[in-house]
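User: Can you write out an input/output pair for a complex, sequences first and structure second?

Assistant: Here is one pair. Inputs:
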Amino acid sequence: MSRSALTGSRIRERRSMVGMRQADLARTVGISASYLNLIEHNRRRIGGKLLMDIAGALEIEPAALSEGAEAHLVARLREAAAEGGKRIEIERVDEFAGRFPGWAELVVEKQRRIAALERTVEVLTDRLTHDPFLSAALHDILTAVASIRSTSSILVETPELEPEWRGRFQRNINEDSQRLSEASRSLVGYLDGVDDIDASTTSPQEELEAFLASFDFYFPELENAAQDTDVQSILAGSELLRSSSARALAEGHLIQYLRDATLVPLARLRSALASHGLEPAALAGHLGVDLPLLFRRLAALPKELEYGPIGLVVCDASGTLIFRKQIEGFPLPRFGAACPLWPLFRALSQPMLPMQVDLAQAGRSAGHFRSYSIAQPVGEISFGKSMRFEASMLVIPDDPAVESNQEQVGVSCRVCPSATCGARREPSILAEGF
Amino acid sequence: MGKRVLLIEDEPNIIEAISFILSRDGWEVDTHANGIDAVDKVKAREPDLVILDVMLPGRSGFDILRELRDHPPTANLPVLMLTARGQTKDKETAAALGVSRFMTKPFSNAEVLESVRVLASGVEAQHG
């Protein structure tokens, strides 16, 4: 049954919700109760003035009764169903959302909650596995404990120990216990920040990411400015840049932003987008700029232009991610190496070759994306010097209903469910089905 | 003269403790505290057994082990690896590289002594 065919069900739901009797509503809008009854059981089509009158009587937008109220809900239910196995009656999703909106909302909410928890698990696992601070702190603690254990055993198990040795080992235990205290305190302080995963940053790169995310990656002050003072005033106003390294990274990013905005002003970009849509090759040709610069400008589009989420990831020639703008459904690893199947890395082996690849994320999130990648030399080019390359990959959500040859990729091996992937570096923490 | 052990470890207090227990057990203990020239040290001293930390300044214990195994005179040298990293992946890496035994910190003195005795006696199957 289509969504519009369920208008009657929605009228009945709404009427019950506001506590109005069927006869009272019928009288208000000038129809018989039996006719309204037929409408409410979806046995008579309804539209036009009568729908407007009923909506007015029920104090609700007509569109909410006719069509659009649960369009978003239905889309979310479809997403949930896509991950739920084969036994779901997907053809009756409209009916489910129309007849049981409360239950449908609950399913969607639970699905959203599960996705958020999975993301938390991924972040924490990524941190436990690759976080350099945590790794160093645990190493310090275990080393101090090992030394104390070994030394104290000697003191206890060697009664004939010479006073000189005894004194030396006692001093060692004292030193190691102090070290253990400091390392433990430091670790506890660090773990206190884990509650707020998004806010707990540990590296300059993460500080930069949090700083840029707080501005939605868009800096209106730099769009029409040509002075370095604007960069400095933005930096001065941010509390998210705690370390000098992060501040230096942010300064470099904003200076590049300013340069990019001078070459491709927002007004020109908007005009080009109006002509070509979100087609990077056409846009770059129209604007006369290279793709990496265009990618950066697209990733810095203000939200109000409504081109939807645009993700960007940049890596250097070692494959290390040096810029990350994440979008929903396409998470980027915080510490460890990313999925080697990303076209971003393939681009490194084929410099200057633009790649357009449709991607499907493995696992529960199972999002569909269109990616555009290219690797280009950066820095000065001169004879006799080797060139430095960086690769950029723009990621845009794609319509899952559109048929295309999608390549399945993951986030990183640790949190990827693709058991048979030939590119796997290490086992996944995910059991079957998480 | 007892058998010689080369302890490659950068934590001074652990060096002191392990050296003490091995010396009391009759071993001649030589120590080295960085990874950069650890392989040269092994080649120069020709110990009967090496105790090797994984996280060393300059070079990881895994790299050192790999080079020892690639060098015919040390390809079968007993190597006891000590590490604060007890992850499965590290154990697998060490095994793939041909470690003789792998021990995670914190260890007991008795465990270290027993491992050294077994490895040096050749009772335990060594690399390969």
